[in-house]
User: Fold these one by one.
Assistant:
Number 1:
Amino acid sequence: MKIIMVGFGVVGRALTRLIQTRAIDLNRNHDMNVKITAIADSKSLAIDRAGLKLGRILSLKEKKGVVGPGTAEDTHSIIEESDADVVVELTPTDPRTGEPGLEYMTAALKSGKHVVTANKGPLVTAYPNLRKLADKNGVQLKYSAAVGGGNPVLAFGEICASSEPVTKVEAILNRTSNYILTQMEEEGIAFETALRDARRIGLAEPDPSLDVDGLDQACKIVIVANHVMKRTSYITDVNPIQSIRAVSPERVAEARRRGKKIRMVGVADKTLEVRLVELDERDPFAIRGSADVTRFHCAFSGAKMVASSVGGPSYTAAGLLRDLVEVQSSTR
Ligand SMILES: NC(=O)c1ccc[n+]([C@@H]2O[C@H](COP(=O)([O-])OP(=O)(O)OC[C@H]3O[C@@H](n4cnc5c(N)ncnc54)[C@H](OP(=O)(O)O)[C@@H]3O)[C@@H](O)[C@H]2O)c1
């Protein structure tokens, strides 16, 4: 399997290391001989049709901040013209435009390459078109790592929906905001202090707005609705999208006195919403810290939950590798 990787940030590098570590197993168990033939970041490009020396690229990126001598302007034509099988798209999520990932994914699918991604932007701005393009060109579009990282939330939902309608989905899928709310509740601290703490442990980005203002959660509920409930929805369909910024320590403490916890929950039923809700502290949805939980309501067999308390780039990389293995199995 020849791969082009676009985006070489924390997830791209974690996936590269995982591919190095798992090379023998992948070959033995899945007949998968993975070669990464091109890697691109925002300003540079490395290409080797025989397979890049991954250790060298990782060290170059760490020391010099680039992946190779090529220029980023050539990334688009490499995607279109190379003989790679898969484009792994890992540029930053922009839920408003889907770019730059949307352009890269479109080029990949049009040129007959499978796409594996964790980037939510293109999936919430243009999923129906991307799906059509993949079907038309007979290639796969896989994005299991975009929701839940390493936790196979979408696959679980797909199994639930295989023989009966899933009528409603509820989800806490933004770990950063759940961590902040938990810290406010357990330490009695203000939002800004809890956010600083989340930054200190590497959970929150320098610009935390996608997480704390509900957009990341909104993206994930759109992707779940489209994948599991076969909707054709976009980020603009989610209303309201509530932020945790305005949650005061007094409100958290007052809820706590009544045995309640405040959580940011995404809901997909007839509408798509991200709301702050009060849950009983014994509710299985009142999860603590950096964790995720999703509940699928099935029309005949009732509600089922999938949850995880681990996350981060290496888990997301494991989700991406799962998709790559599935691409390999489906094309054998
Ligand atoms: N972090 C996680 O655990 C996690 C979990 C689930 C999903 N995701 C999603 O996975 C994707 C990657 O996340 P990340 O944490 O690895 O992000 P990141 O560390 O910010 O890395 C982004 C990478 O994309 C590159 N890039 C930016 N603009 C580009 C362009 N126009 N062309 C080519 N490359 C470009 C950056 O280049 P430079 O290196 O030159 O800046 C960087 O290498 C995002 O969409 C994110 O939402 C991440």
Number 2:
Amino acid sequence: MTNFSSTELNVPLLVVEADPAVRSRLAMQLGEHAIPVETLMGVEERYGSAPFLLVLGPTCARSGDLGGAEPLLARRPDLGSILIAEDLSTDLFQRAIRSGVRDVLGAPVDTGQLNEAVSRVASTLVVTRPSSSGGPSTEAGGEGQGRVITVFSTKGGAGKSVMATNLGVLLAQRTEGTVALVDADLQFGDVAVMLKLAPQHTIVDAVGSFDRLDVGFLETLLSTHPPTGLKVLPAPLEPAFADQIGADQMTKIVRLLRSFCDFVVIDTPAYFNEVVLGLIEESDDVILVAGMDIPNIKNVKIGLQTLRLLNTPMSKIHLILNRANSKVKLEVSEVERTLQVKAEALIPSDVVVPQSVNKGMPVVLDSPKSPIAKSLEQVADLFAPAVEPQAKKRGWR
Ligand SMILES: Nc1ncnc2c1ncn2[C@@H]1O[C@H](COP(=O)(O)OP(=O)(O)OP(=O)(O)O)[C@@H](O)[C@H]1O
Ligand SMILES: [Mg+2]
């Protein structure tokens, strides 16, 4: 990744750090446009009322008022700032975000990550500046409404997360715009592991600063899947945090995401709860994953009955049968008759799936020529057409 150039934005980029060695390393990572300063003293006078961008070093993170940034940001909500902290605790993260810091990164920070964060915060500065309201930059329910696809099953281990991650990466490859994947399996979500991501932030950070949550802030919490550019909002790192996320909060997060994404794919736990019901209601499509065994079919039948009772339009439900091989001695037609729904795709069972899961590489990328990858592509065809190989989105932007 190239270093971010603040001249592209016409705002100064300041690196604030008292330790000279750390200061020059950060400035070097950010490129020639970074202006290293020891403290924030005199900075406001130097730049007047014009906006600027601050990268606050680990010494600021250790000080009581974030090295003077707290009072400055309280006066100047138009400034963009990123904090780099050695001990990145949830407490520090929340304090920083409440003070107006737009992103917090762990030290030592990776050059790519740092420049990506600067670029992201810089772009929100440009977006929010004309309105200068200080409030959320984009509200849900506006013009841009991406398609929300929830992957659900009433049986654990049916293949929801495999389906959600593969669908997410395929849509990211097929779409020019942004595709987000939300892990709403709040207790035991494993989307980040399946994509080999080591996220800096999770959905807990979004909910922890809920009153400040807007598109710009939410974007800073998303992790990027480098091979495809898919944007991921991971589940909490510990099951105990799951309780902090309510149905209304989850719905607001999805509404914010769909306001700037073309697709929002959501992975869920294997049971109905308030969060899942809210998500199903918010979704344009619900992929119902069923494994090819009697307990799966029994539970999916109950799940379908529940959805009907909840007045979920059957037109938005897509039944996908997983592990649908001839060897399992259960006929697809028999399953469809039992469920009274026609399957829209059949996914075979293949050892390349657990192999790809263990590598943290979705099977459509790991074994793109395998029959299972082809069948997963058919699922993506339901939502976005395949693109010619030469026209495919190469990397992420
Ligand atoms: N078509 C398939 N062929 C072979 N293995 C599969 C297939 N689909 C899923 N698996 C394996 O089954 C396991 C469960 O899949 P996955 O985690 O996607 O299910 P889940 O529905 O998300 O489970 P949970 O309810 O625990 O979240 C994984 O280890 C995966 O490798
Ligand atoms: Mg799962």
Number 3:
Amino acid sequence: MFSNFANVWTIVALARDLKPGKPLSLRIAGERVVFFRDASGKAAALIDRCPHRGVALSLGRVDKGEIECPFHGWRFDGDGCNRHVPWNPDAKRENLGAVALPVREMEGLLWLYTGFSPDREPQPSETFTLPGLAVCAQSVVWNVHWTRAMENMLDMPHLPFVHRKTIGKDARRLIGGRMDVAWEDRPYGGRISAAIDGVARPGALEYRFPNVMELFIDPPGKLLRLMVACIPEDDRTSRLLLLTMRSFARSPLLDPVFRLLNRRIAREDQAIVESSLPGEVPPSGEEASVRTDAPTLAFRRIYRKRLLGSVAERPRAPLLDAPTD
Ligand code: FES
Ligand SMILES: [Fe+2]
């Protein structure tokens, strides 16, 4: 399970977007996952596949903190324990559970672990711990392997070409100069900065393992951060969760303005990144690279070392509680 993206914490949504009484179905690294709030209001996540006949639990309803399968009404709590099997009061419910996954709500974010036994907690960016920030989010779906989307987020030299009228506009007059890009290893991933002809560029970038980019574009005396989580849905599709954190213009009425800007920038990249061949980033030696590709090459090394080939081992399969043939 979760091939090539196993045993890591990933942001999947804002915690406030998981409403009580309503299932939220998301596809993550080849698995369908259903999120819901249990009886105590705590977030829960199950593989979105009923152990009875494999249908999507997310098509059912959430009632009293339990999710009820839409097909034959089996009910599961937030730990995946089977709470009810209609028509079968003698069923061995302890053997008929759904598969639960570790989930956390931290700093206003909803996190999923793509495995079963996390050895650490999620590590949110410090930005989320700062008081008084307005946070808004939206998702866009790209038809591309998540590694191509992630690299795009860490790439400085494309800005004046792809984003010639937005975030790359002011760098256009400098095309023809020499860009230096620095990647510094950090415990959480890496920090990227750039200079053109020796003059530092505004807007540092951070890469947070496994799949988050944070762009620091603080105006004087204020805070403005763009964050993107590149969430694999499957080998050909990625969902980009675009977050904006700001210390000014904090009214929720202004969220659409910030969302629009984020969406416009993402749309500028989309068709170009989706055209990448092969879909998944290849070994570094199979594409031509130059000095300013250092951050994307650093990401490739991390991907190949820590994610490529990873799998999550399933706990034992549910047992039968019926005559076998
Ligand atoms: S398929 Fe879920 S209860 Fe039968
Ligand atoms: Fe871009």
